[in-house]
Amino acid sequence: MKNLKLKSARAALDLSQQQLAEKVGVSRQTINAIEKGDYNPTIKLCIAICRELNKTLDELFWEAE
Questions:
Q1: N or C: which end of the chain has fewer CB within 10 A?
Q2: What's the pLDDT score for residue 1?
Q3: CA separation (Å) from 38 to 14, 28, 52, 54?
Q4: What SS3 string covers 24-63?
Q5: How many CB atoms lie within 10 A of CB 16?
Q6: How far apart are CA 64 and CA 11, in angstroms?
Q7: What torsion do the CA atoms of 33, 58, 42, 36 make, to the nearest 10 degrees?
Q8: How far apart are CA 63 and CA 24, in angstroms?
Q9: Spatial separation of the C-alpha atoms in residues 1 and 36, rounded to whole Å
Q10: 64 has a pLDDT exceeding 80
């Protein structure tokens, strides 16, 4: 499932995939894959992304049923 919440939060801070990737220590392709729903990040990476985007895990990664 696509992670549009992550993409939206990143765009709201005017960060490119490359910029976010550099901040959390992964490749741009990893951020792209997470946004497309092709990659399930580790909890450590999820937390790092949340910190950079000033969001909680629930806000970015929790799927409401």
A1: C
A2: 80
A3: 23, 13, 21, 23
A4: HCCCHHHHHHHHHCCCCCCHHHHHHHHHHHCCCHHHHHCC
A5: 12
A6: 22
A7: -10
A8: 22
A9: 7
A10: no
Q: Can you tell me whether residue 19 is helix, strand or coil?
A: helix
Tell whether the model's pLDDT for residue 50 goes beyond 90: yes
pLDDT in tens, 21-44: 999 999 999 999 999 999 999 999
> What are the angstrom distances between the C-alpha of 31 and each of 1, 22, 38, 65?
14, 10, 10, 24
**Can you read off the two tokens belonging to residue 51?**
């910190």
